[in-house]
Amino acid sequence: MEIQKVSENIWEMPATGDMRVPARIYASDHLMESIRNDQTLIQVRNVAELPGIVGHSLAMPDAHMGYGFSIGGVAAMDLEEGVLSPGGVGYDINCGVRIARTDLKMEDLRGRAGDLVRQLFSRIPTGVGSSGAIRKLSSRDLSDVLVQGAAWAVSRGYGTGEDLSFIEERGTYGGADPKALSSRALERGAPQLGTLGSGNHFLEISVVDEIFDDRVARVFGLEKDQICISVHSGSRGLGYQVCDDYLKTLGKALKTYGIQLPDRQLACVPFRSPEGKAYFSAMAAAANYAWANRQILMALAEETIMKTLGVSPRILNMSLLYDIAHNIVKVETHRVKGKERRLAVHRKGATRAFGPGRQEVPAAYRDVGQPVLLPGDMGTASYILVGTDRAMEEAFGSSAHGAGRVLSRSRAIQQASGRNIAGELEREGIQVLAAGKKTLLEEMPDAYKDVEEVARVTEEVGISRRVARLRPVGVIKG
Amino acid sequence: MGNVIHLEQTADMRLRIEGSSLNDLFTTLSLELAREITVPPVHNSPHSTITFVVEGSDEEKAVQLAGELLYLLQVRGSLAQNVEVVPGIGSWQVVAEVIPHGGLSGEIKAATYNDIRFQQSEGRVFLEMTFDR
Predict the structure, then answer these.
(1) How confident is the model over A125-179, as pLDDT tens digits?
(2) Of A71, A197, A411, which is closest to B107 when you measure between CB atoms?
């Protein structure tokens, strides 16, 4: 495979064979070593063969192998000539992150973090061996969740209407149609709303330990020593089922549209086709479920913090900084070769990173660009960055979404053998509780790429700029 | 009883399973999936039988069958402890003896086609499959 380093941290594959566009990978030499170790580059090249792709097939600094598309993959398809691919979204539709800031300082948690983590662990259902925070939804309520998204949760008392201004799409993706979901997807979704999920999903208490950009930090309402709360979760079994169902449906439809693929998990159909419209409606519904889910989880966390610490809403003053989707297709307008085009931007394990001036960015942040949330592993740090003009010019307004795994789960378990991971983290001042019997071993910090390097490379290539670093204080995992 | 090995796979779970028959292979797969994400069942749990059909190429049938085993585990709370596969033309009829498991301890999102390998010969069936965690 022909791959050239074209400048510091930027690699390109020229369009050869059936590739319609070149591919570009943002990575340091060190990050590139792990990217070369699996099928990531083959997947980035395969995506470049999809009908209607424009610009480059992109891989972000945290890229690793996925299904069809790599994780950390971004591809923009022309709306008229291009395709829509469930593999470009992934199984966990609208898996995403939100961060809320508070008025608490580290001093307010001194000697109480352990108790707070225990209370959060008891109050926030993981969905693994537990039921949802809210009763199993009736089919009517589930249908409303799928159409209204986070607004449904707010209407039921989870958070406030103000939160909606700080969620991509205001937490309600238009075009959602519950009828586009299978009965099995609905069956899986009904009992799981308000659950965190397992694996790399988490709820984290963290403290702002470094500010890189004072001006943007002020706009984002961030200051040193401030306590923040992060939630990483998605559309749970409902989203997994939607992806599974539509990979089958679209796989069967390939012949109808004469589409040849190098990998069946890239199954896709024209965006405007009946099958494309059906998948988009189902994906939007699953995205709405995920936004409602994160809204509920955050409200449960807020209530638990107030109760455990004995503080009033005014003292806590918890407010949503931003909620971003990192597994989704968005219809967006971008300038390509000097011309504005309507595109279906597939981001799979990649974050929207719109720069200043875009209407999609909340008015409060529009002058500086949108917050880009980059969670790391549970032992090091997470970053808040800001979107840039360069991301708009080069990467369809996209950036990295996390640290990305470097060790398989089985190898992580081997390396953690004989170690007390929770004890090691506690000595670093981080309280951790997990529901899954092996979660702490599989998710230990060594299993992930160095988030510091991912954040640095992301900034050096100019697709986002660091604003603040958050250090974990307490983590609960499924 | 078949043999199962966990292969190196960065983010998810890749299994290599060998059995003497389709029944052996998919029973082994079912028990391994249960070992990964459930608490063991209570002794003397009541048995029941379920039947379903999977269709398509061998690879498609294998992915569908694995997907059904996951659905049983994660949505229905049932462990298929004996899986009988009755091959037909372009389809397999699957008869599974299921018992309630002891609860979930983890999650698997889906069985995938990623680099799937399926081989069947006299007295040996082989499957490599990746599961999205």
Answers:
(1) 987 766 667 788 999 999 999 999 999 999 999 999 999 999 999 999 999 999 9
(2) A197
Q: Which residues of B touch A410 (CB under 8 A)?
A: 6, 8, 13
Q: How far off is chain A from B123, nearest CA to CA, in Å?
A: 30
User: What residues of A are in the B interface, CB distance below 8 Å?
Assistant: 37-39, 64-67, 71, 91-92, 127-129, 184, 187-188, 197-199, 237, 240, 243-244, 264-265, 405-411, 435-439, 478
Judged against a pLDDT cut of 90, whether residue B44 lies above it is answered with no
Cβ contact A67–B132 (<8 Å): yes
Q: How far apart are CA A151 and CA A170, in angstroms?
A: 8
Residue ranges covered by each domain of chain A: 4-477
Give the distance from residue A37's alpha carbon to the nearest chain B alpha carbon, in angstroms.
Answer: 9
Question: Per residue in A103-126, is it b (16+ CB within 10 Å) or e — as a string?
Answer: bbebebbeeebeebbebbbebbbb
Q: What is the DSSP letter of A167?
A: B
CATH of A4-477, one of 3.40.50.300, 3.40.30.10, 3.90.1860.10, 3.40.1280.10: 3.90.1860.10
Question: Given a cut of 90, is residue A224 above it in pLDDT?
Answer: yes
Residue of B nearest to A67 (CA): B114
Sign of CA dihedral A96, B105, A440, A60: negative
pLDDT at A285 over 90: yes
pLDDT at A372: 98
Q: ipTM for the complex?
A: 0.91
CA A226 to chain centre: 23
Mean pLDDT value across chain B: 93
**Is B107 in Cβ contact with A199 (below 8 Å)?**
yes
